Amino acid sequence: MRFHNPAIVFGGGINGLGITRNLGSAGVDVYCVVEEVNPVVFSRHCHKHSLIANFTERKSQIKSFLKEFSKKTPFRPVIFATDDIGTLVLSDLKSEMKDDYDLVMPDRKVAEKLVIKNKFYESLNQNNVPHPKVFIPTGIHESKTLRGELEYPIFIRPSISQHFSKLFGKKGFVANSDQELLRYSTIVSKFKIDIMLQEIVPGPDTNIYGISGFFNRQSKPLAFFAYHRLKTWPPVFGNSSLMESVPLRKLPLLKETITRYLQSIGYYGIMDAEFKLDPRDNRFKLLEINARSWWQNSFPTKCGLNIILKAYLDAVGEEIEYSEVYTTGLKWINFVDYVHSSVLDRKIVEREWIRSFKLVRDFAYFDVADPLPFATEMLLAGFRFLSQNWIG
To answer: Of the residues 148, 173, 180, 255, which has the fewest C-beta atoms closer than 10 A?
Structure first.
């Protein structure tokens, strides 16, 4: 079956590739917009692609691209974002482009509540959602006022993580003393980045559980999928390198919390939320909500629930029924990152390590039916390694 309405995916990487495969394999023509050469453009499901350098910083160029694109098709395209800044930029264009496009994302004000972290935590407080303690300093010398508020180690995180990651290659800094807090705060202040200080919820990363899903324009959930993080890379504040699908019925409080909160702010779009069980009070604390698609968006599909396709079908006017039916006990893996984390734990090639690959059904980049993106990523990874260690 082929669908008339094309889809436009802004961004590549694992996230964009997952969206492209989820839609393309279902019969949707997918157009990919990327900032540079990216594995997604080599996917058999990428109908065509466009290169727009730094498009998240060039709103006017995105507008020009969309105006030209709408002239080429009689059907309303459906737009998906893959990162935080792209979500903010595109959501800002939502009302302006409403006659020609369906953007699967919230309005700008709602997006800001989730993407801009000082607004996020303020919103969580207003809605009584449990989360890690947060302290927002007004200057780099506020470590003295921190006493009694938070205990070390402390996570120094930016208000918008994407800008920070491009500069420092990580989500934030971990300070273990007043001296480290002052040093890191001074470094960040040079780039005029707003920061907040967040407590680190104790316990292993295996205490992290997530719920992904889709909410329609009436903020009604139409799909939910739950997972359990088994391994992380980089340590502490990295991304999942190994995760497992789990029954949603085992996480009723998380489902209720995320539904109540997102409905209270009028959320529309794809989402992914992560919670960590705090051993100090045995309560789940909300760590993050992505107001967009997430890295492992192909995983629910491999388990039998194509959340991305549901979002597309709802956007084009199809009647969609709620579903939380999928196969549990299956695994998603980012093999390279999993090896990194296993080497750090000194558990590589042990019997238990080998057993951990059992029931892996989804891989970051690799898909036997769509092999070129994986091959391209390996070549690009090799080039990055050589350029960092040998070239120059």
So the answer is: 148
The pair of three-digit structure tokens given for residue 250, joined into one six-digit string: 């085992």
Written in H, E and C, the secondary structure of 141-164 is CCCHHHCCCCCCCEEEEECCHHHH
Count the alpha carbons within 13 Å of 175 in the hemisphere toward its beta carbon.
24
What is d(CA 103, CA 9) in angstroms, rounded to the nearest whole number? 10
Return the amino acid letter for 135: F
pLDDT digits (tens, 9 = 90+) for 27-62: 999 999 999 989 999 999 999 999 998 888 888 899
Lowest-confidence segment of 28-37, 342-351, 369-378 by average pLDDT = 342-351
Tokens coding 75: 């059907």
How many other C-beta atoms lie within 10 A of the C-beta of residue 52? Answer: 16
- Average pLDDT for the chain: 91
Beta-carbon contacts of 121 under 8 Å, excluding residues fewer than 6 positions away, are 131, 134, 196
Q: How far is CA 217 from CA 118, 154, 208, in A?
A: 25, 38, 29
Report the alpha-carbon distance of residue 203 to residue 239 in Å, rounded: 16
* 54 in Cβ contact with 31 (< 8 Å): no
Residues 223/307, Cβ–Cβ less than 8 Å? yes
Give the Cα separation of 342 and 309 in Å (integer). Answer: 34
Torsion of CA 252, 257, 263, 269, to 10 degrees: -80
CA 3/CA 36 separation, integer angstroms: 28
- State both tokens at 128: 């009584």
Q: How confident is the model at residue 142 (pLDDT cuts 50, 70, 90)?
A: low
Residue of 83, 81, 130 whose CA lies nearest to 287: 130
Which token pair is 74? 């009689």
Mean pLDDT calculated for residue range 163-182: 85
* Residue 388: per-residue pLDDT: 66
Nearest 5°: the CA angle 299, 303, 304 is: 115
What b/e sequence results for 17-42 when a residue is b if at least 16 CB atoms lie within 10 Å of its CB, and e otherwise? bbbbbbbbbbebbbbbbbbeebbbbb
Question: 219 and 199 in contact (C-beta within 8 Å)?
Answer: no
Q: Name all domains of the chain by residue range, CATH numbers in brackets.
A: 7-106 (3.40.50.720), 133-199 (3.30.1490), 205-366 (3.30.470.20)
Q: How confident is the model at residue 284 (pLDDT cuts 50, 70, 90)?
A: very high
Burial of 63 (0-12, 13-18, 19+ CB in 10 A): middle
